[in-house]
Write a structure and sequence with these properties.
The complex is a heterodimer.
Chain A: H1 4-57, E1 76-82, H2 92-109, E2 113-119, H3 121-128, E3 133-138, H4 147-162, E4 168-176, E5 182-190, H5 194-204, E6 214-216, H6 219-294
Parallel strand pairs in A: 1-2, 1-4, 2-3
Antiparallel strand pairs in A: 4-5
Chain B: E1 5-10, E2 15-21, E3 23-28, E4 31-35, E5 42-55, E6 58-72, E7 75-80, E8 83-85, H1 91-110, H2 117-134
Parallel strand pairs in B: 1-7
Antiparallel strand pairs in B: 1-2, 3-4, 3-5, 5-6, 6-7, 6-8
The chains are: A alpha/beta, B alpha+beta.
């Protein structure tokens, strides 16, 4: 059995760990509030955007006329993987990476080539060592998510798609359902489907009768402007969701860690007390034995 | 109420303005246009430029950097990549951005190619609009 001193040192160490995890939990809670706020702030924009897209989709456009909407035989699929930049958030990133890996493998089995665009350090670091090619990576931006970060990714992806280096783009991110649940979620973002647009309409359209719009310039031109922005909006949305999910996940993970520390401290205190008591008993026996011998 | 239009200016980071106004003007790609109460439905793309609205005798100006605008049901929604109200503009930052953009523009002209000319030009346009709006 470990000596009294050893056990005590261990208890002190675990107490310090618990302090750190507790602090991280509180920091994550505060950051989560911020991240949720940003999601809230972004929502009106996304909704209005979807509303307008739906409006345009209803204007009777021909999807094949738009390069970003035209579907072609898929030889190479790109997956945009949004993860966090930092670790210590439980299985959050691992789940995303696993889902991404599974997706890429299925694509391969079905005879399509898979490649990646990584947003966030964690996914990037993992897939660097994999056989799947990473065509674009944005790291170190998840702490302060800005629209231009999303735009950068969007531009790159759109370029690859238009140059026909990839034929389809999927997006996977950690969807924030509530503080306890975050789920890896996948969306196809390119080519943009007309169903996607009509769905978008349901999400944000205003009530009231449909009016006949004046378009300035013509609907095709407007749609040509909007489609790339639509891609950016989706990426931005994914990044914000992942950011909030990361903090929520870290909160839970750190809470669990703090609790595990407390359990360990309890167990060790028990061992410590037993050891102390048996040491006292042994000492008493010694003294009694010594006194006995002197008689 | 009856002769006002609800103006909403939305950016990715927040809902900037949500107010009943008498008149709003926006920098459309095909030219500046204005909207008053009961404007016919309109969908227009916007370029970098100034936007103004008038409410009870006060004019408020904003610097917009592109986006689009939807007018319907007596409501005007402006979706901008970024928008700043004149009083909130950081002039110093805008001046710096202007200088940087001008410098880069010269560089770009000097040794063509490796700087994205279009991007520098939009950056310059953005900075100029900001400065102008803030000067009001």
């Amino acid at each position: 059995m470990a000596s009294l001193k050893d056990i005590q040192l261990k208890i002190v160490g675990i107490k310090k760990t618990a302090q750190i995890t507790q602090a991280m939990n509180m920091v994550a809670a505060a950051k989560l509030r911020g991240a949720q706020q940003r999601m809230e702030d972004f929502r009106p924009y996304a909704e209005k955007f979807s509303g307008v897209m739906g409006e345009l989709a209803g204007a009777g456009i021909n999807p094949d006329a738009f390069p970003l909407m035209a579907a072609r035989p898929v030889k190479k699929v790109m997956l945009i993987l949004v993860t966090s930049d930092r670790g210590l958030c439980g299985s959050f990133n691992a789940n995303l990476i696993k889902a991404a890996g599974r997706f890429l493998k299925t694509q391969q089995e079905e005879g399509r080539e898979g490649c990646l665009a990584c947003v966030g350090k964690k996914g990037n670091a993992f897939f660097k060592k994999s056989p799947f090619e990473t065509l674009h990576s944005s790291v170190g931006i998840m702490d302060n998510i800005q629209m231009f970060n999303a735009r950068q990714v969007g531009q790159e992806v759109i370029k690859l798609f238009l140059e026909e280096r990839v034929d389809e783009v999927q997006l996977i991110y950690g969807r924030f359902i509530n503080v306890a649940v975050q789920r890896p979620t996948m969306n196809r973002i390119l080519p943009i489907s007309t169903e996607g647009l009509e769905e978008a309409e349901g999400g944000g359209a205003d009530e009231g009768p449909k009016a006949t719009y004046t378009y300035e310039p013509d609907p095709e031109e407007i749609l040509n402007n909007l489609l790339p922005m639509f891609v950016n909006v989706q990426i931005m949305h994914a990044m914000l969701e992942t950011g909030a999910s990361e903090q929520a996940s870290r909160m839970t993970a750190m809470d669990n860690a703090t609790r595990a520390c407390k359990d360990m401290i309890d167990d060790l205190t028990m061992v410590f007390n037993k050891a102390r008591q048996s040491a006292i008993t042994a000492e008493l026996m010694d003294i009694v034995g010594g006194a006995e011998a002197l008689k | 109420m009856a002769n006002k239009i609800l103006l909403e200016v939305v950016t990715p980071s927040k809902l900037l303005v949500s107010e009943e106004v008498e008149l709003a003007t926006a920098p459309g790609t095909d030219g500046v246009f204005g909207a008053m109460a009961n404007h016919a439905p309109l969908l227009a793309t916007l370029k970098i430029g100034e936007m103004h609205y008038l409410n009870e005798g006060n004019t408020v100006s904003m610097a917009l950097s592109g986006g689009f605008c939807d007018v319907s049901n007596n409501r005007m929604t402006v979706l901008a990549e970024s928008a700043e109200i004149s009083t909130e503009i950081d002039v110093e930052r805008a001046l710096k951005a202007k200088e940087r953009a001008e410098r880069r523009l010269q560089e770009a002209e000097a040794r063509k190619g490796d700087i994205d000319l279009a991007r520098v030009q939009t950056a310059l346009a953005r900075a100029l609009t900001r400065i102008q709006i803030a000067g009001h």
